[in-house]
Design a protein that fits this description.
Mean pLDDT: 92
Shape: globular
Low-confidence stretches: none
CATH topology: Arc Repressor Mutant, subunit A
Strand content: 5-15%
CATH superfamily: Winged helix-like DNA-binding domain superfamily/Winged helix DNA-binding domain
Radius of gyration: 18 Å
CATH class: Mainly Alpha
Number of domains: 1
Largest sheet: 2 strands, antiparallel
Helix content: 55-70%
Structural class: mainly alpha
Number of helices: 6
Oligomer: single chain
Strand order of the largest sheet: 1-2
């Protein structure tokens, strides 16, 4: 007997796509340069001091090559720049340009608005509970030898 019940990772993926699609559509409608979901994710994990491509790849859970391609597309679009890392002559830091900062602030505002729209649809208490559950540390994933798998 097959279950039609979708698993939690599928549901979380759908929720992420809901936010991504809303964000990307609103950015484009607001005159921002169109970006891919991967490029938007890169912006989300980039810190203000600058981040190496290797660290971006790790935070995004993608290959270094994928992160590198996204970085260079955003550099070409004028949203990111590479600067020397003062701590290491061999490393380069990726930072937002002035236009990238403007776009980042616009994205934060849009995401806040999307969260408010979600609260209107499913209730503020549900959104608060969802946020609390997702902000709670889950610990490391169970190992294949643990009893929970």
């Amino acid at each position: 007997m097959q279950s039609n019940r979708r698993n939690l990772p599928q549901l979380l993926g759908d929720a992420r796509r809901w936010f991504e699609e809303g964000l990307l559509a609103a950015l484009e409608a607001g005159g921002a340069m169109p970006v891919t979901p991967t490029q938007a994710q890169l912006f989300a994990v980039l810190d203000d001091r600058g981040t190496t491509v290797s660290e971006l790849a790790r935070r995004m859970g993608v290959t270094r090559q994928t992160a590198h391609q996204a970085v260079h597309a955003l550099i070409a679009a004028g949203l990111l720049e590479q600067t020397p890392d003062p701590a290491s002559a061999r490393r380069r830091l990726i930072r937002r340009t002035e236009e990238g900062e403007r776009t980042h602030r616009q994205a934060i505002t849009i995401l806040d608005r999307l969260e408010a729209q979600l609260a209107d649809r499913i209730g503020q208490a549900t959104v608060t509970s969802l946020r609390t559950a997702l902000e709670t540390p889950w610990g490391h994933p169970p190992s294949p030898t643990s009893d929970t798998c």
